[in-house]
Amino acid sequence: MAPPRTPYDAVLHAARDVTRLDCALDAEMLGAALLGSVYAIAETDRSAAVREFVGGFLAATSRRRTAAATTIRSVFATLVPDAEGAARVRPGSQAPAWSGQLGRVHLTGSWAYGDVYGDQTSYVATFAYDDDAGGPEHAMVALIDHNIGITKDIFVGGPAERILDQVRQMCAADELTWFREEDPARIRGEVARHLAVTDDLGELPGEGALATDRALAGARLAVLPAAPATAPPVAEPLSADERTRLVRRFLASPEAARAGLDTVDDAELASLHFCLGLLLDHAASFPDADPLRWSPAVAGLFLLDWVHRRAVLDMDDAAMLP
To answer: How far apart are CA 233 and CA 5, in angstroms?
Structure first.
């Protein structure tokens, strides 16, 4: 057999058995995995790269009449409805029985869980097809890392109840993890906002299903109610007076006393205040800046990475930091 001549031919070859799949969910997962290769290799604006690829694919395959070609065209048009030509795609005469259920899902529940330090939040939304022919109830899980300000991973799979049970059990067994029901509009807003940052990364996080499930997750996010249009929260930089008040409050706190900072002699005071200022500078470098949000992970980033790259310490300053 001759090798595929274009990327579009390669996709058609990879999707040659799409009509043999059992349900619409399997087809959407296959389509998302195929588009994941485009997403993964794009150098900028990965979401736009996928949209442009789908538009080009639909144009290049418009005269293909095989069952596999018309079906994968319908799958791509469902996953990326804003691609050029997607609205004009129609199922072929040999379409599988489940093709009418592509993308026809409704929300069945929404939750959130995360660590008490605020380092990460995961959102879970479960969906069912309008007809059983579409496939089983399934879940979308999105992990947001607040320390780097991105949607770090996304997973779509099932059965939904099994995934939800695993999450509940994990949270119940860990006193440092919380779990709650969540407003689906908030899930859409938070995941989409952080995904926009992820889409522009030069290099994607190395593990997880982010690339392969990105297109399907985007389609499921679009099913959720939209949050009221508001600008993303932007933390205002602390003024000099606010920084001074915050440092004084800390030095007057029981935590500072337990650390022995209330007994620092006059010769070390300048270094103490300089190091506390570095803590505030580091906190301000986060996407969602909050000088009072600290965790073991944030402390590690500060001491093992940020200080070495951003600060110039003399011997007294270095002795003041762990």
So the answer is: 47
Question: Coil, strand, or helix at residue 209?
Answer: coil
Q: Give pLDDT, residue 234.
A: 66
Q: Got the DSSP string for 248-304?
A: HHHHTSHHHHHTTGGG--HHHHHHHHHHHHHHHHHHHTSTT--TT---HHHHHHIII
Percent share of the chain, pLDDT over 90: 82
Report pTM: 0.89
Q: How many angstroms separate the Cα of 264 from the Cα of each of 251, 252, 260, 272? A: 11, 13, 7, 8
Residue 3 predicted with pLDDT over 70: no
The whole-angstrom separation of Cα 175 and Cα 287 is: 27
**103 — alpha (psi -120 to 50), left (phi > 0) or beta?**
left
Contacts for 135 with CB less than 8 Å, ≥ 6 apart: 22, 23, 24, 25, 26, 98, 101, 129, 158
CB 211 within 8 A of CB 36: yes
E strand spans, the chain = 105-115, 120-129, 138-145, 150-157, 177-181
Separation of alpha carbons 300 and 302, rounded Å:
5
Q: What is the mean pLDDT of residues 128-145?
A: 96
Q: Is the Cβ–Cβ distance between 285 and 278 less than 8 Å?
A: no
Q: Tokens at residue 279, please?
A: 């803590």
Give the model confidence (pLDDT) of 148-163 as tens digits: 999 999 999 999 999 9
- What string of DSSP letters covers 300-320? HHIIIIIHHHH----HHHHHH
CB atoms closer than 10 angstroms to residue 300: 11
Q: Which residues of 22-42 are buried (b: 16+ CB within 10 A; e: fewer)?
A: ebbbebbbbbbbbbbbbbeeb
- CA-nearest of 226, 222, 220, 223 to 28 is 220
Q: Are strands 177-181 and 150-157 parallel, antiparallel or unpaired?
A: unpaired
